[in-house]
Amino acid sequence: MDRSNKKTHGGNHAHPQKRAAALLAVFLLAACSSVTKVTDFEHRSLAYGWVDIKDVEINHVSSIYIQQYRPKTDAPYYTTGFKKFKDGFLFWSMALPVGSHKLDTIKGQSCLGILCSNTFYTYNFGKQGDEVGAVVIKAPGVYHLGSYKMKNEKSGWLEQSKFQVLPAPNAPSRREMLEEILKDDDTKDTPIIVERIKRELARL
């Protein structure tokens, strides 16, 4: 997982420890031009997750992206809704189609009150085959991408800085996360997703 730079909307378990190379960057990712925009959600799914970022360089999130790996598409990136929630950040996309998807990047900066650094960090969560934040969607529904704790890792003087991704022991429950997503205005304006969330809450 590299640390380099990257909302449309748009899973399942916390996974074992994952290492990542972290590269400092201050540019916007060119792949943003490959973002999928969705207006019809009948055949789309909600995917959601949560991250604890207290132990990395950022405390403010500016974007979180999910990437579609299969089937191949010219616009594989999905922006997410996100908000501070329960000592971390809750994120979700309600636009994912049938296929293989994965948490791609989290971009942010360090802020003190309203004053923020002009340095942006992008944490890359790796490619297909990595289980962190990965999901295979076989039918429209609600999918949990996992809850994770990001943590800096010591590296040598000339090495790229690294971070670990661990299962988050302090994560909110799936019920708490879904109930919070229901409060979002964009979610409220998408009745088919609201109904799917309510069905999932009844199942939990």
UniProtKB/TrEMBL annotation:
Protein name: Lipoprotein
Source organism per UniProt: Ramlibacter montanisoli
